[in-house]
Amino acid sequence: MALGKFISFEGIDGAGKSTHVGAVAEQLRASGKTVITTREPGGTPLGEKLRELLLQETMHLETEALLMFASRREHIAQVIAPALARGDWVITDRFTDASFAYQGGGRNLSLDKLSVLEQWVHPHLQPDLTLLFDVPLEVARQRLDKHRTLDKFEKEKETFFAATRAAYLQRAAQFPARIRIIDSTQTIAAVNAQIAQLLATL
Ligand code: TYD
Hints:
With about 200 residues, this protein is an alpha/beta fold. Helices cover about 55% and strands about 15% of the residues.
């Protein structure tokens, strides 16, 4: 049985989630918790190799979904499950909701197929809390343009991100107790305060 807490951070590229992962981990450590921060795709040596492929290579949409879940399977086995069993807190930058949003929404892969993979790879594991960083597409785009060379997903068209964002919001409507929407157009301080309130409920 899992003893630790499992928290995932989600949102379209440029929504600002990565800014908050470190701060939340520090906040929890300050309150005496042992915290692991990790990410998907990736989080293990094999997963990081898969991430390279996933973020650079063009491939069939089902290959992409299968590799996302292959990376996740390894991540759960090597990192997430052992940490939760030890009683540690795990914060992951993306988990399965990202597959429903990007491969399901963005690429239009059948949600039934994604549900099969979810049931296969983690039938009994879900995050205790998912923070969905939500911003309008224009804001996300501006934030992305600012800082770097774009990867395969970040180069996608606006319609892709509109569908990805819509799928995230649909998932949040489906699991309202687990997935909490954060208005990521707020200041960093305001977002931190909202996250602190949500963490206090765990
Ligand atoms: P991201 O988390 O945005 O990392 P960084 O902040 O370093 O750019 O990059 C991961 C990308 O992978 C992102 O564009 C979303 C995509 N992704 C999927 O399409 N499906 C998934 O299941 C996961 C976990 C990620």
